[in-house]
Structure formats: structure tokens, C-alpha cells
């Protein structure tokens, strides 16, 4: 049975394995295998693998002595992992409980199992969960060398955006001033700060900001991270013209905050604008909205147009990296 694996040349294997391990993507239940000069590293979430790596289906052997959920169930359940918590998405309560029991009985490192009990809802973008195993919705998630403590029932967080976050992080230069308008628990600002940036993150969710501050402490960057609970539109007056970089990861309604982003922008600022649009015109609405908000005060140039992931049939989650020069 094939499992998703990153395939690399054997000589690049250890560096690639370390890179995937830092992102929390190595699947522990299968052996890393060498075949015909290539090394195959099993991964937990192929959608989160960096784009420069090749993901293939490969018949990786189950690690000797390891019991996997499929061994118990007789079928491969669909699930994702955040730290030691496993998330399933099952409408049938009996099937959900059966999968949860198999996950706990298996040799996977599982401290709890949650079933999605609602869609993301409300201004704070949280969802309800059914706890199938364990006694908590709190977890520590590791991603590209950073550790993030969070409570899935209290804050929004998606591990599937790890690759996109890392893409942006790699653009950071030491000494930058970066502002995340919808910062959550800090998955942008904390790694920004680790690369030497001074960061401000705002969020209307008080619990998220509490976690952001704790995560800055946990990762040793509290001196370079300021977390502010509140609507960014109310905070912007204190940071007018301050930012070298602005992150706008609120894809359903980021356009409503573009005037604020322009207020935050310094003389030369990169804005990472996230949007959800239909396949027929993925980037046009966002680009037009940015130009309407920033011109003629700024010269606007779009440096990157990129699809982050599929959102729904006929719709994509996209990002525009836009440079504003006064």
C-alpha cells in the first residue's frame, strides 16, 4: 500500500529528513527507505510539504513492531496531526469513536483525538470539537524550528499553512519591522522575530494574544514581539508608516482592512495579502482592491501571485505579495 513520501537523491537525504522533521512532517509509523539511489521519507501531510520537494506514493514498510491504525481497523482512516493531538472529520459518531480507539491503540504518538463538530464560525474563527480521546484541546505544535502552544477550541490555527508561512518567513531580513494584522498565536511573527525582525501582532481574540506572548517567550523572542489585543483599525494610529512588511491573513475579508494596511506601510513595504476567489479570476479582485487603497500615494507592484491551496470546488485560497513604494 502506497503512502505519501518525499523522494530525494540519497546524498540529500539527511538534510531533507532534518528539514521535514523541523516542520513536524515525518511520519513515524513507516521506515525511511532507500531504493535505486533515491531516499523516500514518509510524511504526515503531503499538502504541507515545501513545493521544491517531490511527493510520491511509495510502498514504505511499516516500522518493525509498529501497529498502525489501519492494522486495527482494516482500512486507512483519514486524519491529521497537530502535535500529539489527532484530528478526524467524521459525521458518523460510531465510526469516529472506532477510529479514535484505533489511533490510541496504535503505536502513533497520540495524546488525544478530536472530531470536528462544527465549521469555523464567528468573528474569532473558532470551531466546536468533540473530544473522542484524552481530556484537552490544548497542544504544542512544532513547525520549522518553532514551537506553538495553542488551544484548538479557543483559537484559529491551521497546520496546513506551514509551507506558506515558511515561504514568507524566508523573505525576512534582520532589522525589518513586521506587522501581522490578524496574528493569532504568532505563527508568522514568532519565526519573523527569530530571523531578527521587530514584530507587532494584533488580534481581537484575547486568548490568541495570550498564546502569542507565551509562544514568543517559549521561542526566546519576547524582546522582539509585541502582542496587542484589539481591532487593528483601532491600533494603527500608533504605528502609522512603521511597517516594512504587513501580513493580512484574513482571506474572507482582508479587503475591508486595506486602508489600515496602507496606514501601517512605511516608504517601502511588502504586503502579503490573502484572498479567496473563484477560478475564473483568482488575483484580479485583490490586486484591484490594493491599487484602489494605495494609489496614487504608493507605487504598487505585484511581486508574487500564488495559489496557496484549494478552498472549495471552484475556489482557491491565494496570496499576493505586493510591494508599496511611496
From TrEMBL:
Keywords: Cytoplasm, Methyltransferase, S-adenosyl-L-methionine, Transferase, tRNA processing
CDD domains: AdoMet_MTases
Signal peptide range: none
Entry GO CC: cytoplasm
GO MF annotations, alphabetized: tRNA methyltransferase activity
Keyword Ribonucleoprotein annotated: no
Pfam families reported for this sequence: TRM5-TYW2_MTfase (PF02475), Trm5_N (PF18093), TYW2_N_2 (PF25133)
Keyword S-adenosyl-L-methionine: yes
A biological process from GO: tRNA N1-guanine methylation
Boundaries of every SAM-dependent methyltransferase TRM5/TYW2-type domain copy: 79-326
PANTHER family the record matches: TRNA (GUANINE(37)-N1)-METHYLTRANSFERASE, TRNA METHYLTRANSFERASE
Name of the featured protein: tRNA (Guanine-N1)-methyltransferase
Organism: Haloarcula pellucida
Amino acid at each position: 500500500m502506497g503512502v505519501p513520501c518525499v523522494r530525494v537523491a540519497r546524498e540529500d537525504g539527511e538534510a531533507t529528513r532534518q528539514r521535514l522533521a523541523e516542520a513536524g512532517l515525518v511520519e513515524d509509523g513507516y521506515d525511511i527507505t532507500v531504493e535505486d539511489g533515491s531516499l523516500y521519507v514518509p510524511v504526515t501531510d503531503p499538502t504541507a510539504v515545501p513545493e521544491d520537494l517531490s511527493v510520491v506514493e511509495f510502498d514504505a514498510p511499516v516500522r518493525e513492531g509498529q501497529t498502525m491504525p489501519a492494522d486495527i481497523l482494516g482500512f486507512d482512516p483519514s486524519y491529521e496531526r497537530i502535535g500529539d493531538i489527532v484530528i478526524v472529520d467524521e459525521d458518523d459518531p460510531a465510526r469516529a469513536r472506532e477510529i479514535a480507539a484505533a489511533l490510541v491503540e496504535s503505536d502513533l504518538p497520540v495524546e488525544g483525538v478530536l472530531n470536528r463538530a462544527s465549521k469555523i464560525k464567528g468573528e474569532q474563527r473558532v470551531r466546536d470539537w468533540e473530544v473522542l480521546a484524552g481530556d484537552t484541546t490544548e497542544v504544542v505544535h512544532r513547525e520549522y524550528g518553532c514551537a506553538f502552544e495553542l488551544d484548538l477550541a479557543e483559537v484559529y490555527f491551521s497546520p496546513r499553512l506551514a509551507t506558506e508561512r515558511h515561504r514568507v518567513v524566508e523573505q525576512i531580513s534582520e532589522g525589518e519591522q513586521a506587522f501581522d494584522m490578524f496574528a493569532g498565536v504568532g505563527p508568522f511573527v514568532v519565526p519573523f522575530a527569530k530571523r531578527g525582525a521587530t514584530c507587532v501582532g494584533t488580534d481581537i481574540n484575547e486568548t490568541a494574544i495570550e498564546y502569542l506572548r507565551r509562544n514568543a517567550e517559549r521561542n526566546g523572542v519576547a524582546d522582539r514581539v509585541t502582542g496587542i489585543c484589539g481591532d487593528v483599525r483601532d491600533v494603527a494610529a500608533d504605528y502609522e508608516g512603521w511597517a516594512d512588511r504587513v501580513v493580512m491573513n484574513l482571506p474572507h475579508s482582508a479587503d475591508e482592512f486595506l486602508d489600515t494596511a496602507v496606514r501601517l506601510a512605511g516608504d517601502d513595504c511588502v504586503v502579503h495579502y490573502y484572498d479567496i476567489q473563484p477560478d475564473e479570476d483568482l488575483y484580479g479582485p485583490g490586486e484591484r482592491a490594493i491599487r484602489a487603497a494605495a494609489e496614487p500615494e504608493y507605487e504598487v507592484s505585484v511581486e508574487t501571485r500564488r495559489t496557496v491551496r484549494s478552498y472549495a470546488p471552484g475556489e482557491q485560497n491565494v496570496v499576493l505579495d505586493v510591494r508599496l513604494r511611496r
